[in-house]
Structure formats: structure tokens, C-alpha cells
Amino acid sequence: VQLVESGGGLVQPGGSLRLSCAASGFTFRRYIMSWFRQAPGKERALAARISSAGDSTYYASSLKGRFTISSDNAKNTVALQRSSLAPEDTAVYYCTAYNYPSDYWGQGPQVTAPC
After folding, report:
1. Of 20, 43, 66, 112, which is least packed with CB atoms within 10 Å of its CB?
2. Is there a contact between 73 and 86 (Cβ–Cβ < 8 Å)?
3. Is the pLDDT at 9 greater than 90, yes or no?
4. Range with the lowest mean pLDDT among 23-32, 54-63, 73-82, 102-111?
């Protein structure tokens, strides 16, 4: 099983960045895909989630309207488009896949550091 994230980096406040996660080794279309993030000194928290069919999404309240999660079951990828980035969005971002009892996490956390 692999979840390989890409797209992190530095960005100016107010800018946009897109995170991508390429999945392999499991039946992607059966899994709920999520992005978690962990800000410095804070606990890891759910940022956004998308259903296995891609027809239902959830966002942390502070991210609604700025972040958009999407998935492509044909390409086995999930993305998180982030706009209007602010310093408080600085965090390590993790891609995850869940289908009880399986719970997979990405190994390459992406850091966004609005500066």
C-alpha cells in the first residue's frame, strides 16, 4: 500500500496551492479519502474528507470555502486545492485512506508555510 503526497511548499499569504496524493496497493474506489493536518504545537485534525464515490464531502468549519477536496477513481488520486492561504494554515498535511478495518496514511507529509 502506498499513498504518495506531492505539492507542498512555500506560498505567499493569500496564495493557493494544490496537494495531490497518488494511491496504490488497494481498491481505491472503496475507500474514504481524507486530508489531515497538524499545525505546530497542535494536535492532528481532520481537514477534509470525500466519500468513496466522490459524491459527498466534509470540511473542517474553518476551511469551508477555501479548501476543496476532489478524487479521481480512474486515476486513484485525491487532491486538496487550498486558496486564500494564511499563516495559520501552516501545517504538515497527511493523505489517508479508510475502509474499516483498514486505515492507511501517507508517508511523505507535505508542509505549507505561508510567509
Report:
1. 43
2. no
3. no
4. 102-111
**Residue 27, helix vs strand vs coil:** coil
CA pair distance 56, 60, nearest whole angstrom = 14
Helix (H, G, I), strand (E, B) or coil at 87: helix
- Given a cut of 90, whether residue 93 has pLDDT beyond it is yes
Quote the cell numbers at residue 5. Answer: 503526497
Sheet holding 2-6, edge to edge: 2-6, 17-24, 77-82, 67-72
**pLDDT interval class at 33 (50, 70, 90):** very high
d(CA 112, CA 88): 10
In this structure, the number of other CB atoms found within 10 A of the CB of residue 112 comes to: 20
Looking at residue 100, its amino acid is: Y
